Structures are given as structure tokens and as C-alpha cells.
């Protein structure tokens, strides 16, 4: 559409991870192998927790929701990225770009709030064990999950509402394999200094504050466990350490992307791959591999289905 001497952008061209055909084929095979192994494993985690009554505690309820969120999150950008490996011109419409941005921040924000809910669950289990079953009941668990989704929605809708009024009149090339605010805002035909400042607070600073809050919370729990004489403190400490690992894995790339000026840096694409493709599916796997109860329940489920021949 013409506006004076400028043209409204109706699509964006994604430059992708590489312009070399051989490299694209290698990456396609690598990502397909990764998905064929890790994605079914995340589905298995959800099925195991759902089917095994011994995994009915709130901790496993939250883990199943985390795995579901990660699967959804990895359905936003990677499918299009894989399809684009076969395309010479990787174009995405303006509407699809905004939709990708919305769901990316919606699901990512929901994960952050869910991790806060999981930290609350661990606090009650360790610090208030006598009241744990009463306070963290199934209704409270569902309320925390709904609150996580609602928080992610509010965070994302703010991002989109700030992007929609921006004029885009060219250029229209995004030096990445998906649409995100850090790339998109640089193409706007307007002064975006104040907008970048607002988005830094909404994404960058908020993410960093949540990261610090979770680290302090789990650090305090580990200190309390160290001074405790309870029989289950070793298992509780192992669970807290696992949560800390997941916090670092999830928040590290997000802090790198959003807690800095919206400019291009050499490692941007590498970090983006780990942030949107690799780490989300790995998060539940880290938790599972460090938890014997889930591994045993998986073996029982596979044994009943005839896919595993246990001893």
C-alpha cells in the first residue's frame, strides 16, 4: 500500500541461519534428529505423570505442565524454520510475523510464571511440610497454572500492542529465522528509543528480576535444608538443584537476548537456536534424568505397553 513516497511492508524476508545450501541441509538433518528423539520423550513425560497414580503430587503436576508448555513453545518457530530450509526465499507475512512474536512471548512468559509457581511449591514442601497438603491442593495448583498462562498472555499482548502502531516502510529483511521484537523494532520507520526502553523493562528487566528471585529462593531453601536434620533432605536438595539448573538453562539465553540494547551481536543466532529450539525441550529431560521416581514410572508404562522389556 502506498503512503506518499513510502510503501507499507506486507511481508518480511527471513535471512535464516545460513545462506549456504550444504549448511542448511546439515542443520535440517540435525534438527530433525533432535526433534525425533526429544519431542517424543517430552510427550512420554506427560503420559507417565498422567497415568501413574504414584506421581500425583503437585511437583509432578507442575512438571507435566512445564513439559506441555515447552512442547507448545517449540511449535512456534522451529516448524517454519525447518520448512524454510527448502525455500530459496524465506518470506513471512506481516500478520504471521506478529502471530509468531505473540505466541513466542505468550508461552515464554507463561513458563517464567510457572517456574515461580514451582518455586512456591518447593517452599511449602520444605518450609511448611505440615501444611503442604492443605495449602498446595489441586485447586491451588490449577490456579497457579492458570495464573501462569494469564501472566504470559498479559506480557505478550503488551509487546504486540506496542509493535502494531509502528510504521514499516522498508527495508524488510530480518537477520534471523523467526520474528522477535529485537529484530522487528529496528525496521520501523520511526524513532523507537522510548519504545525500546519500555520493552527492555517489559522483557529484559522483568526476566532478570524473576531470575534473581528464583535463585535467591532456591538458595535460601538449600541453606535451610543444609541446617535441617530431616530424612528426606537429600532428595529435596537434589530437586532444588535440578530447579536451579533449569532456571539457568531457561533464563540465560533470555537475559542475553533482552537485557541489552536491541542491536545485532555475533552470537545472536546461536543463542536464538538454543533459546527457541534446544533448551525448551531439554528442560523436562534434565528434571526427568535426575528423578528416579519418574524413570521408574516410565519403565513401568513402557513395560505395560510392550515397548520396554524390563528385568
Automatic annotation (TrEMBL):
<feature type="transmembrane region" description="Helical">
    <location>
        <begin position="205"/>
        <end position="225"/>
    </location>
</feature>
<feature type="transmembrane region" description="Helical">
    <location>
        <begin position="98"/>
        <end position="120"/>
    </location>
</feature>
<feature type="domain" description="G-protein coupled receptors family 1 profile">
    <location>
        <begin position="41"/>
        <end position="287"/>
    </location>
</feature>
<feature type="transmembrane region" description="Helical">
    <location>
        <begin position="25"/>
        <end position="47"/>
    </location>
</feature>
<dbReference type="InterPro" id="IPR050427">
    <property type="entry name" value="Olfactory_Receptors"/>
</dbReference>
<dbReference type="GO" id="GO:0004984">
    <property type="term" value="F:olfactory receptor activity"/>
</dbReference>
<feature type="transmembrane region" description="Helical">
    <location>
        <begin position="270"/>
        <end position="289"/>
    </location>
</feature>
<comment type="similarity">
    <text>Belongs to the G-protein coupled receptor 1 family.</text>
</comment>
<dbReference type="Pfam" id="PF13853">
    <property type="entry name" value="7tm_4"/>
</dbReference>
<keyword id="KW-0297">G-protein coupled receptor</keyword>
<keyword id="KW-1133">Transmembrane helix</keyword>
<keyword id="KW-0472">Membrane</keyword>
<keyword id="KW-0807">Transducer</keyword>
<keyword id="KW-0552">Olfaction</keyword>
<protein>
    <recommendedName>
        <fullName>Olfactory receptor</fullName>
    </recommendedName>
</protein>
<keyword id="KW-0812">Transmembrane</keyword>
<keyword id="KW-1003">Cell membrane</keyword>
<keyword id="KW-0716">Sensory transduction</keyword>
<feature type="transmembrane region" description="Helical">
    <location>
        <begin position="59"/>
        <end position="78"/>
    </location>
</feature>
<dbReference type="InterPro" id="IPR000276">
    <property type="entry name" value="GPCR_Rhodpsn"/>
</dbReference>
<feature type="transmembrane region" description="Helical">
    <location>
        <begin position="237"/>
        <end position="258"/>
    </location>
</feature>
<dbReference type="GO" id="GO:0005886">
    <property type="term" value="C:plasma membrane"/>
</dbReference>
<dbReference type="GO" id="GO:0004930">
    <property type="term" value="F:G protein-coupled receptor activity"/>
</dbReference>
<feature type="transmembrane region" description="Helical">
    <location>
        <begin position="140"/>
        <end position="164"/>
    </location>
</feature>
<dbReference type="InterPro" id="IPR017452">
    <property type="entry name" value="GPCR_Rhodpsn_7TM"/>
</dbReference>
<dbReference type="InterPro" id="IPR000725">
    <property type="entry name" value="Olfact_rcpt"/>
</dbReference>
<keyword id="KW-0675">Receptor</keyword>
Amino acid at each position: 500500500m502506498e503512503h506518499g513516497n513510502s510503501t507499507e511492508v506486507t511481508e518480511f524476508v527471513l535471512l535464516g541461519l545460513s545462506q549456504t545450501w550444504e549448511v542448511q541441509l546439515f542443520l535440517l538433518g540435525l534438527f530433525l534428529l533432535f526433534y525425533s528423539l526429544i519431542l517424543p520423550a517430552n510427550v512420554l513425560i506427560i503420559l507417565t505423570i498422567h497415568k501413574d497414580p504414584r506421581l500425583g503430587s503437585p511437583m509432578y503436576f507442575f512438571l507435566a505442565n512445564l513439559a506441555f508448555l515447552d512442547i507448545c513453545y517449540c511449535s512456534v518457530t522451529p516448524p517454519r524454520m525447518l520448512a524454510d530450509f527448502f525455500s530459496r526465499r524465506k518470506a513471512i507475512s506481516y500478520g504471521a510475523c506478529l502471530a509468531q512474536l505473540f505466541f513466542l512471548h505468550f508461552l515464554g512468559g507463561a513458563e517464567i510464571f510457572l517456574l515461580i509457581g514451582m518455586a512456591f511449591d518447593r517452599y511449602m514442601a520444605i518450609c511448611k511440610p505440615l501444611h503442604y497438603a492443605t495449602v498446595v491442593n489441586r485447586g491451588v495448583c490449577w490456579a497457579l497454572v492458570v495464573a501462569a498462562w494469564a501472566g504470559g498472555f498479559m506480557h505478550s499482548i503488551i509487546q504486540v500492542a506496542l509493535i502494531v502502531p509502528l510504521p514499516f516502510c522498508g527495508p524488510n529483511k530480518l537477520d534471523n529465522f523467526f520474528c522477535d521484537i529485537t529484530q522487528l523494532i529496528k525496521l520501523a520507520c520511526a524513532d523507537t528509543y522510548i519504545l525500546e526502553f519500555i520493552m527492555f523493562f517489559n522483557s529484559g528487566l522483568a526476566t532478570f528480576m524473576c531470575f534473581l528471585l528464583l535463585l535467591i529462593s532456591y538458595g535460601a531453601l538449600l541453606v535451610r535444608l543444609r541446617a535441617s536434620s530431616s530424612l528426606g533432605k537429600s532428595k529435596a536438595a537434589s530437586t532444588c538443584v535440578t530447579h536451579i539448573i533449569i532456571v539457568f538453562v531457561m533464563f540465560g539465553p533470555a537475559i542475553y537476548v533482552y537485557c541489552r540494547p536491541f542491536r545485532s551481536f555475533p552470537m545472536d543466532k546461536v543463542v536464538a537456536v538454543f533459546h527457541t529450539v534446544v533448551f525448551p525441550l531439554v528442560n523436562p529431560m534434565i528434571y526427568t534424568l535426575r528423578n528416579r521416581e519418574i524413570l521408574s514410572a516410565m519403565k513401568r508404562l513402557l513395560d505395560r505397553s510392550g515397548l520396554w522389556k524390563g528385568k
